Amino acid sequence: xxRLLILALLxxxxxxxxxxxxxxxxxxxxxxxxxxxxxxILQKHKTSGxxxxxxxxxNDGQIRYSISSGSSGGDLPLEANVGKPVQVVGxxxxxxxxxxxxxxxxxAPKIAPPAQFADLQTAxxxxxxxxxxxxxxxxxSGSNTRSDRDSATSSPSAGGSSAPQALPDLIPESEIVEGxxxxxxxxxxxxxxxxxxPAPDPWHVAPCGPPERIWGQxxxxxxxxKELALPPLVTTSPPGTPQTQAGVIGAAGTQTLFGNExxxxxxxxGGRVRLCGWLGARRWVGLELDxxxxxxxxxxxxxxxxxxxxxxRPFFNVGDNTLSSDSAxxxxxxxxxxxxxxDTYSQFQTYGxxxxxxxFCNFGCRGGxxxxxxxxxxxxxRVDLLGGYRYIGLDEGVLIREALATSVTPRTGxxxxxxxxxxxxFHGGELGVAxxxxxxxxxxxxxxxxxxxxxxxxxxxxxxxQLVVPPGAExxxxxLLTGDLLALRxxxxxxxxxxxxxxxxFGLTMGYQVTSQLSVKFGYTLVFLSRVIRxxxxxxxxxxEMYIPDPTDPDLVPVGPVRPAVAFNDTSYWVQGFNLxxxxxx
Length: 586
Prior knowledge:
Blueprint: H1 2-16, H2 19-25, H3 27-30, E1 36-46, E2 52-57, E3 63-68, E4 85-93, E5 101-109, H4 120-123, E6 214-225, E7 228-230, E8 234-236, E9 255-258, E10 261-263, E11 268-278, E12 285-294, E13 297-305, E14 311-317, E15 324-331, E16 336-361, E17 380-406, E18 413-438, E19 442-468, E20 478-482, E21 493-513, E22 518-532, H5 535-538, E23 542-543, E24 571-585
Parallel strand pairs: 3-5, 14-23
Antiparallel strand pairs: 1-2, 1-4, 2-3, 4-5, 6-11, 6-24, 7-10, 8-9, 11-12, 12-16, 13-16, 14-15, 16-17, 17-18, 18-19, 19-20, 19-21, 21-22, 22-24
């Protein structure tokens, strides 16, 4: 019984509500019976299907309404008002879209919006003193009129006189609803005294931000790197060369089998990924992340001889305080059989994080979703500044491994190794500028970055000689000695050094827009780092032979120069090449 009573009271209360209140609470209930007035900039927007759609955008260039001319499209000056502040009068239609569709009945240059639009079905029952003044809208020859619109209504003034209140010619009295529907960001309405767009300034013409929130780029790389110039590491001599001259640099007939050449000169594949996003609705400050890596480069060399071919490792002997060319034999007729293997590698990567800010833009802004080009009605130039963090990593190494055995009695075998690994890590602050010029389908972009920081250089040297009697016997007696030839007690260890350095990146890219969101692009990039340590700068070929391990006299005390020494002969480094990729914008 109580529930029925409460339900009856609610029904009576809803029935007693004025029509305007019910319309305000549920505008969908009124449907197409209501006319709306909207204020904004009229623009054209290209939809995902490739069609052009008239839209109204607000102060931030964001689409608020889609505009349809309906059956009277030919009578409305839509095209003539593109890019201008306007007011549009029309009706809403239901549509599966996040942007309301307004079927326009009238369009005119923007005037000061009315202080309030009231529902006259309710206002008729109110005192005339309580009605706010209405600002008339401009008339339109194609609009419907009623004979009773020209009748004057009067309200008492302070002096006892009455003043006529003219209703807008475009809106029937029974269909006026509260407005305006579109207000400025501060909520005060778009009055005549406040412009819809900010005044341009020499640093930032806004709004000119691209319509996308997030965009990404993926590139396949074909890059070249600076060569690695190693010293001669393996040599040979013609048969019959005396043992003291075999493999010696400068001796008659000596040839270099590995080294004394530029390595890593072939192009290397790789990949690059960039992910960017705007941090606010204005879209002139954003965040960019990028990562670039090249595939590992590797060069192998292998030589073996049973004594028929001379194999040697050259060096400069400084044992008697004089510099003389010398060699350590790996294979020699009737003395040694041996194998020598050299492996070199190189790894490169770089990544960064930056803030972007727009400083110049003369694109014609349209707003909307999709590719940046869909938001620009004309060709134009956009310039962004960026600042952030840059990391560059370069790791390289050289490994020299020997396996040799005597061919005379007593048979003795040796396993020996020299290893040089270098690492470079650059950390720095980076500033740059990016400029992009657009045409309807083609676009070009230039990029220049400069970073200042420090490079942490690391060198790791390792070496040993293992003596096995008889050769090949896994369970035979073995003696492990420190060092081989270029890695000895004088330089074996791990060393690090930090130095001030700078890095730069230069890029040029051409792109073609395939769809409203997808572009294909092709470009060139150069990355430069001023100071790195590489294996050729860490190898000292000046050796005091008294430090070379001697299994017959392990207690020998060397005298003379302490060589080879720890070397930090740093140099510059660069990578450059071509990029082919995709650019997609959400």
